[in-house]
């Protein structure tokens, strides 16, 4: 359970899954993986056509030393697109800016046409940005479809049991916006 405490101390409350749901994902969902070392912790789903990074946490004292980039490189070696959720940059929270810079340095782009808005148990909404890396060009509709699969098989895995509701109904939380034409 120490790994869960590490996550819980770092990630915002609205982004944290219940311990029971994560335990079930790790033990009962073959495509869901947890890798933990002294320096990092990553939980991700490996689908047939993409990887979804659910949580990536690098220990504070080794940040900016290449550990996170090494984890990303291991995932890139699978040769599949990688998707992850990133909090929008908040000028008041330095870590949000650092995260976005980290993912950009590692070749990730924001899926700027995929709108992703979730709801807390209290009914408050919060937005997350979808960032992606792909070994070859990929369209935003494909990104949204992959994200819908991650919602169904990861965020919603036994969510009725753990929360009494779906955590991320793809039909409600995802929307593909039309491209902006100049």
Automatic annotation (TrEMBL):
Classification via PROSITE patterns: GNAT
GO-annotated molecular function: acyltransferase activity, transferring groups other than amino-acyl groups
Ranges for domain N-acetyltransferase: 1-139
Name of one Pfam family that matches: Acetyltransf_7
Name of protein: N-acetyltransferase domain-containing protein
Protein species of origin: Kroppenstedtia eburnea
